[in-house]
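Working notes for the structural subgroup meeting. M.R. asked for a predicted model of this chain before we commit to crystallization trials. I am recording the input and output together here so anyone reviewing the notebook later can reproduce the run.

Input as submitted:
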Amino acid sequence: MSLEKLFQISTSAPPPIHCTNPACPQPPNSLGHRICETCQTPLTYRYLWATGSGASQIQPGQLVGNRYYVTFPQVWLDTKPGAPPILPDILSESILSYLYLYPHHLHIPGVFGVYPLGIPPEATETLLLDNIPVDSRGQLLPTLVEVWPKSSAVRQVYWLWQMLQLWIPLTEQGAAYSLFVKENLRVDGWRVRLRELHQGKVQPTQRDLAESWVALIETAHPTIQYRLQTIHQLMRRQEDCLKEVASQLNQLLMEQAAQLPLHLAVTGLTDVGVRRSENEDSCYPTISDVRNFHLYPNDKLIPHLSIVCDGVGGHDGGEVASQLAVQSLKPLIHSLMAEISQQEELAPPELIIEQLQEITRVVNNVIAAQNNEQRREFRQRMGTTLVMALQLPQKVKTPEGIELTNCHELYLVNVGDSRAYWITQNSCQQLTVDDDVANREVCHGRSLYWDAAQRSGSGALTQALGTREAEFLRPTVQRFIIEEDGLLLLCSDGLSDNQRVEQCWQDFSASVLNGEQSLESAVQGWIDIANDKNGHDNISVVLTYCGVSPQKLVLLETPHLPTKMESLESEPTAASKVLLYDESIPEPEVQPPSKSMSKWKEVVFILSLFVIFIAGGFAIWWQIRQSQLQSIPSQPTQTR
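Returned structure, recorded in token form:
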């Protein structure tokens, strides 16, 4: 039987790519078009990696199953991206590994579907992986080995750090061998990406990982080569030394990053949207906050801290929760930054992550206490999403005794579905994973994402601040290093819904990074896009410019007084999302606090009392305001 019949492939001219709009009267479009010629819907180019030896036999230019166009070896373009994929009958062990590793989506692909190659019953299922390391044309990104010799010292250490962070989760899934296949290890700017998972029969050891780094260390930047050799020797001598290796590698990474300049600028805006009468979003900092950067707590927080909160909809008082979260977080983060600035030693990322989780739980309990005091239950309980970015300016000393003032660390905290994106001249990367039902089903190994997303209630939140006690809260905290020019975008789902960020990021990236457009103008541009293309919800956007190159002129607009919709504290409003309550969450294991955190625990306790006092005053003000509003006779509203 011919290969064409066996794999259901045909050779022809490039096929059309179909519009995903179900109402489009003429879905087919010529390959290369970015917008549907008929309905103007952005076209989706979904490139997939087809695993297995069978897929490797199919040459570029073939059309598989009248749907998948082979653009490069084993890279298939889905020409009908609106159609459902073939789903596996059972979730095999190899598929489950991808699902359990979904939280590491920045580095590891996911399973889109399967495709049967051959004639049943001998047909084998090849996995079709999405979120793969390819460029906009579907060509594989370069391997780490290819770009290593010409890369900067800080980037080389950062790549090794990421590989070390992936070692444990990959080992747990029996896929650590994925880090040893040169063609499998790709790089996308700052981040390491895997083409697929390799589950070898014999699992490599830590010493094997050390040996795989030998060639890289030999061609590493001269300024880091000796230190990397020391780390390599440690990995070879001691089998169980990951903690010490991570500590030494982190120290080297901090030293290298701190030698780069870092220019930061930030501004934010919240808007009620075109369909809602009230705004339940809150964000920090706004234009007004930036103008008053010399006042407490802005004096230490700007431009290092950015926050977006979206009051949980369908819950009375969600607008109070979002504002309460922002106002509670600011003094706590201010205190953390002050504490860190006084320390002589470098605080490890694990400690900072633990402290940020503790802060998030304190704020959660402030909101939860208000719910309990007002006897709110189930859907009456107010809550809020949270995405928060903290550029923590830690000091570090080099072995020569030179003190550097900023290690370029960026910490992201997220609860709910407000998102963070990293945008450069050439790419846009979603950094966070939404806390919703669809993602929960994937992470628990119960469903492929496409299947989970089609089910009713797939977008319902699985957690938010304030709706439960802190023992049930699992905030996600990630640590990144800023070692390239980029824009950090935080936003509520009023903007991120319907892939608007992924579709429109190029409208702003180059102009802002080149100093041709101000942050204020770009933020307003994002708001306008959300209102024009979504418009169904409130919108909050906070944009931070991060520059490590010689500073370009970042234009600023003439300061102006904030409008009513820009104000965070004047008009609390109504809620916008649905939160899932009927799920059972196992209690997290209680870890004994580290000695280095004892002082910080005391600070958090004292500050939490202060925050609760402020929260009580805020709640009383809100109740008085509501009673005043209810006593005012209704007036006819004007329409625009």
